[in-house]
Hints:
Blueprint: H1 2-21, E1 23-24, E2 29-32, E3 37-39, E4 47-53, H2 58-74, E5 79-85, H3 92-102, E6 107-110, H4 114-119, E7 128-132, E8 137-144, H5 148-159, E9 170-173
Parallel strand pairs: 4-5, 5-6, 8-9
Antiparallel strand pairs: 1-8, 2-3, 2-6, 4-7, 7-8
Amino acid sequence: xxxxxxxxxxxxxxxxxxxxxxxxxxxxxxxxxxxxxxxxxxxxxxxxxxxxxxxxxxxxxxxxxxxxxxxxxxxxxxxxxxxxxxxxxxxxxxxxxxxxxxxxxxxxxxxxxxxxxxxxxxxxxxxxxxxxxxxxxxxxxxxxxxxxxxxxxxxxxxxxxxxxxxxxxxxxxx
Length: 174
């Protein structure tokens, strides 16, 4: 009897852990490269990957081209990928140059800072990435340079209605 209760308790903890850890993203606002205001709350309805990066960050410069390729693979499945810069406004011209040089095909927003990362539970490391479900809840955080299997693991799990083992809610890649 005690074993049965322990097994049920373990199943409940493992089965519901990702739901318990998922929290709605705060309604933060940014600007796209055309200067239009963009809100995180408006991303509800799509599975979304958001990478926080900077032009001065070497790992970010490695990560964004990979995310751009992943974006091409997952866009037809209703996934959005957005790169939000933590660059200072005086450095915004560098963003467009980098995107063109690297042929990056992602939505790019500006206006994030270290305080933004902290509000999203990412600490103060760039690059950092969050993965949100269709309800706008953060189901994954990656501190450091996200690798393709990291991002694909979250996306495939969400796209398959959370079947199978849930990916770790927090990954550290530094």
